[in-house]
Design a protein that fits this description.
single chain; 780 residues; 26% helix; globular; alpha+beta; six-stranded mixed β-sheet
């Protein structure tokens, strides 16, 4: 990272640190969520009712337009060429054959690309979402093996791909660090995540560990992982009257548009980015080199451009999860109470961004312990910049922590479920904050009963079915509640005779998790309308506000924005109602929405319909826009989603083949807004966790920094035969301090799964695997 960007992040971290000291001292009533959201009390409305996704029919019929399906007249097609060395310079380019190829429009390299600014790296400002602080096609420098170094435009995609294959490059290679041992030899530095240090120290963990009667002290390793959304990254781009229009697949619509605008010195109103449908994101559908290259090529050619990454191209351009080496040491009393907890280790990063794998995040609030030492160090390698991947930090951190807890349970002779419950904290062990809501013990009890945990064999390697060894394992998962600032909502209420309709617009993204459906449910509940009276607009940077679909926070951000907009709507409607209304003289905080109108909260008979108010005011519609409150609740309470994962595996004693035969996720995530889409989210996360446990691994050639398995033929992810029936249950206990009483659910599904599988494998075979993935060679 640049010195300037690093300084910005440190300054932001200092400011956040000061706020974290002041906000906990404020009375609850001063904090967003200090008074429970009124929707929490709605027990028989739309919330909690299974609703099919409103966009489902469009996707089934092929009527949902994805990024690579938009068309412009006279559109050219792009293909990229990628560097084959990890560090150095381009000394010569042979483009003659490519320029003579059929259908060629242009070849763009650093020699003829438009002059562009370096995109702001994520975290350096509220709107910056660039992957690294590197200029794109502005010089001859090579920073990783796979970096895009040329773009070919042609009349068809096939012609562009062929021409790109004809380009020749000569390099002057420079010394690089492409091995883990080399990175370690270059030295370590303390890790930062979102501007905050990855370090906690409570008491003296080393001293407590030295005197503990029961100790587990092991190293656990997780490999690199690459993103594999069903929809590869793509964008369809045009310059129209000096403005830039991008149809993209994006999780961060508004911020991405602003960052791209800054690259081309465009004002925000001169960039419009739409992203109505995204075929899977998981952290990777953001700003990468290809959108900027596509926009530059469109500008140079004077024609619209479609740029679509091949599956291999996704591996070359789009970051994933970095590898980790983690030490977990737990010291416990004879009764099983934790007295020392150490979770430290190493994550790898590039020199040009600040995105380590923050594997201690889940450990911070996991267990009661008086002596805690947590630290993530980083070492740097010349490689593709890593990025967010579903449950960054928690997914791999819970593997190490929860395997160590299982090892301690065996040493103590205590049931693993009971050991976890025994060490349940009554407040956040590292921050000291009260939990806003924590019902993981209920999740453990319900899950154990539902799964049949009592039938587990205590002694490992004692249950068999012919060649198959059978075992059970469990693990806790956790993921923080987030609500990022910047969310706004616009509500337009329209009258058609005695009927009304509402349009709710939020600058959010739909990646297949049912965001538009949940927003419609929540909006209908707040406005007192039926679901068919509500339309949701989203995925367009022209909509006010900025809401990122990441960190399992989008629903909370939307919910808080819709709360603010609804309050503004009530106030505006009361003004329009005037003195002739039954509501005359009432203040906005005493009035709510009910049955397509406004009503006094403590006397619903004092009411007037929306249609009546608008008719008397001679208005066909009313529109309000409002911003959500600042997310101060995050500093006032310790807020998390939780899971208890139970797993049964069958391991073949002859071949080492491992099959997961049963799995159950028991979740504590506040109130569940839509059970149908929630189950899908939980199951999707669990499936991703099964891949992490058993097969996912990026093969990285440490000789030259090249990813060697950039395809779904060689990078294995679970298919139908790898996935058993997945059972999902939840507590459905509302958090009184969050919008709708809900917590995020997008990432909690994956956390804990890999550990539950590894612990089940131990129970089946008596063999501990501490190095993911659990492949058959590690069990033979």
């Amino acid at each position: 990272m640049s010195i300037i960007d690093s300084a910005k992040q440190k300054a932001q971290g200092l400011m956040q640190g000061a706020m974290e000291k002041l906000v906990p001292l404020a009375p609850d009533s001063w904090i967003p969520g200090g008074r429970p959201d009124p929707l929490i009390a709605h027990k028989h409305g739309l919330i909690g009712t299974p609703v099919s996704r409103l966009d489902g029919a469009l996707k089934v019929k092929g009527e949902a337009g994805f990024a690579a399906e938009f068309r412009f007249d006279d559109m050219a097609y792009a293909a990229l060429a990628y560097a084959t060395i990890p560090r150095g310079r381009i000394t010569a380019i042979d483009s003659a054959a490519a320029e003579a190829a059929p259908g060629i429009v242009l070849v763009m390299t650093h020699l003829n690309a438009p002059r562009m600014n370096t995109p702001g790296v994520f975290g350096s400002s509220p709107t910056a979402v660039g992957p690294a602080d590197l200029p794109i096609l502005q010089d001859d420098r090579i920073h990783w093996n796979g970096q895009p170094i040329a773009c070919v435009l042609a009349e068809t995609q096939e012609q562009a791909d062929h021409a790109a294959s004809l380009l020749g490059f000569t390099y002057d290679a420079e010394p690089s660090t492409t091995s883990l041992e080399g990175a370690k030899a270059n030295g370590r530095e303390p890790g930062l995540f979102m501007g905050q240090p990855l370090h906690n120290r409570i008491g003296d963990a080393d001293a407590a560990l030295a005197t503990a009667p029961h100790v587990v002290d092991q190293v656990y390793r997780t490999p690199r992982h690459n993103h594999n959304p069903i929809e590869p990254h793509a964008a369809t781009i045009a310059w129209i009257d000096g403005a830039l229009v991008i149809h993209d697949a994006s999780q961060m619509v508004t911020a991405q548009a602003q960052t791209i605008g800054e690259v081309f010195d465009l004002k925000p109103d001169k960039v419009r980015l739409t992203s109505p449908y995204v075929g899977g994101g998981f952290g990777c559908k953001g700003l990468w080199d290809h959108q900027i290259i596509g926009a530059a090529a469109a500008k140079l050619a004077g024609r619209p451009v479609r740029i679509t990454l091949s599956r291999e191209g996704v591996y070359r351009v789009v970051g994933g999860r970095s590898l980790t080496e983690q030490r977990v040491a737990i010291g416990a009393t004879a009764e099983g109470r934790f007295d020392a907890l150490v979770h430290t280790g190493l994550s790898i990063m590039t020199p040009h961004n600040n995105m380590p794998e923050p594997f201690i995040l889940g450990t911070r609030a996991a267990y009661a312990c008086p002596n805690i030492s947590l630290q993530v160090d980083i070492a740097r390698m010349n490689m593709l910049a890593n990025t967010f991947m579903r449950a960054p930090g928690e997914a791999v951190g819970t593997f190490a922590l929860e395997c160590a807890v299982d090892e301690l349970a065996v040493d103590l002779g205590i049931d693993p479920v009971e050991l976890r419950i025994l060490n349940e904290p009554d407040k956040d062990p590292t921050s000291g904050l009260a939990f806003s809501s924590r019902h993981i013990v209920e999740a453990w009890r319900n899950g154990a009963d539902h799964f049949g945990w009592a039938d587990r064999s205590v002694e490992p390697a004692t249950r068999r079915d012919g060649e198959w060894q059978i075992g059970m394992g469990c693990a806790t998962g956790t993921y923080p509640y987030y609500r990022m600032p910047g969310a706004q909502a616009r509500i337009t209420l329209t009258r058609d005779g005695d009927a009304v309709r509402a349009l709710i617009e939020v600058a959010a993204a739909e990646m297949g998790m049912g965001t538009s459906t949940t927003t419609a449910i929540v909006g209908a509940e707040r406005l007192g309308l039926s679901l068919d009276q509500v339309e949701v607009g989203y995925g367009d940077s022209s909509i006010p506000g900025a809401i990122m679909a990441g960190g399992s926070q989008q629903t909370a951000a939307i919910g808080a924005a819709v709360i603010a907009a609804h309050n503004a709507l009530v106030a505006e409607l009361l003004k329009l109602a005037g003195n002739d209304s039954p509501l005359a003289g009432l203040s906005a905080d005493t009035v709510g929405s009910e049955d397509a109108g406004l009503a006094k909260i403590d006397d619903p008979s004092q009411r007037e319909s929306y249609a009546s108010i608008l008719t008397r005011a001679q208005r066909d519609s009313v529109t309000v826009t409002a911003a959500a409150s600042q997310p101060l609740e995050l500093m006032h309470w310790s807020m998390h989603s939780h899971s208890a994962i139970f797993c049964e595996v069958r391991v073949n004693a002859v071949t080492g083949e491992t099959r997961v035969s049963r799995i159950l996720g028991s979740f504590d995530c506040g109130r569940i807004l839509n059970p149908k889409t929630a189950k899908s989210q939980f199951r999707g996360g669990i499936i991703m966790g099964l891949g992490m446990a058993l097969m996912e691994e990026t093969q990285f050639d440490e000789r030259n920094g090249r990813i060697m398995n950039p395809s779904l033929a060689e990078y294995h992810i679970p298919v139908h035969l790898d996935v058993p029936e997945i059972d999902v249950i939840w507590t459905d206990i509302a958090d009184p301090h969050t919008p709708m009483g809900a917590h995020g659910i997008g990432e909690i599904g994956i956390t804990g799964v890999a550990a539950a599988v590894a612990n089940a494998v131990y129970n089946a075979t008596g063999k501990r695997v501490r190095d993911l993935p659990i492949t058959l060679d590690k069990l033979l």
